[in-house]
Specification:
Layout lengths: L10 H5 L1 H31 L6 H43 L4 H24 L8 H30 L8
Helix pairs in contact: 2-3, 2-5, 3-4, 4-5
Length: 170
């Protein structure tokens, strides 16, 4: 679970199984994104060391392929997570507390913005030979900023309502 819970979190909410599950999923997205950012930072740092070694080139290409695989999986999971929220969780929250509609409207808009950033990152990893770590870094930093803000807002506004539920909406 995140070091500092969302704004206004109560001990009861933080013990609720559904709140804990949502926070765990969000933490996984935060942690994986941080790992990818660190990985790209390492690639950029390694690029600054001049070398002509074929072995180094193969290692570099292998590391880029690994980043692409991790990135594709991450992006698919994030798209899926947002889709499930949009089609299952948000309608149930609206039924439970209609006053949350402006929050849901904002979250949906953020889902759309994050989807564009995910697709941009995907696009920047399509051609292995043309990958530029600095571009990957820029794309990931934009995604990180948008996603971190989104997750914090969502947790602050959704978790208190989620704690009212006894099971996930279907």
């Amino acid at each position: 679970m995140i070091d500092q819970p969302y704004e206004g979190a109560t001990p009861e909410q933080l013990q609720h199984p559904m709140v804990r599950e949502l926070l765990t999923v969000h933490d996984m997205f935060r942690n994986e994104l941080a790992a990818m950012l660190s990985f790209v930072d390492d690639l950029i740092a390694g690029q600054q060391q001049p070398t002509e070694s074929e072995t180094t080139d193969r290692i570099y290409a292998t590391r880029i392929r690994h980043l692409i695989q991790v990135g594709v999986q991450y992006n698919q999971m994030l798209h899926h997570h947002h889709h499930l929220e949009s089609v299952m969780l948000f309608p149930a929250l609206r039924d439970e507390a209609p006053e949350i509609d402006p929050v849901i409207v904002r979250l949906e808009a953020e889902h759309d913005e994050i989807a564009v950033l995910i697709d941009k990152f995907d696009e920047s990893t399509r051609d292995l030979a043309a990958i530029k770590p600095s571009t990957l870094n820029t794309d990931l930093l934009r995604l990180a900023e948008a996603l971190r803000s989104h997750l914090a807002y969502e947790e602050t506004h959704v978790c208190p309502l989620l704690a009212r539920f006894t099971r996930w909406p279907v």
